[in-house]
Fold this sequence. Notes:
- The chain is an all-alpha fold.
- 38% of the residues lie in helices and 0% in strands.
- It contains 5 helices and no strands.
- It has helices at residues 3-7, 10-19, 37-50, 65-77, 80-95.
- α3 packs across α4 (65-77).
- The longest helix has 16 residues, at 80-95.
Amino acid sequence: MxxxxxxxxxxxxxxxxxxxxxxxxxxxxxxxxxxDDRAVLAAIVFVATSGCTWRQLPPVFGASWQTVxxxxxxxxxARVWAKLHRVLxxxxxxxxxxxxxxxxxxxxxxxxxxGGPDGAESDRPRQEWAGGPCHxxxxxxxxxxxxxxxxxx
Length: 153
């Protein structure tokens, strides 16, 4: 089993194909052959899980970092990740495999009434949001497959 099949198992690949848009066709035909979508998805998973930058992407996926990033941007614009998340939650939920007792509501997503529930202003000085709940650098996984490592830029 290769790195692509380990990062994108058959079950995930089948679900992904249902939510991913069709590959665009060139009206005039010809052009370069499109990189394999499964390999590109595996490269995206590798970047997301290893902490590699796009430019450090190992060449074993058969696509350049530019192609992988472009496909990631295209799929993001098509809301593929949200659709995939919804389908996977629905499938897991129908099997009873989702433990909602561990559900988290992110505080930035929930509107808080100004001044609290009774409308009284607090004595504390107001703090501005700094961009997110935490700004920790991603951990760099030494390797996912026992052989691959992020390549220096």
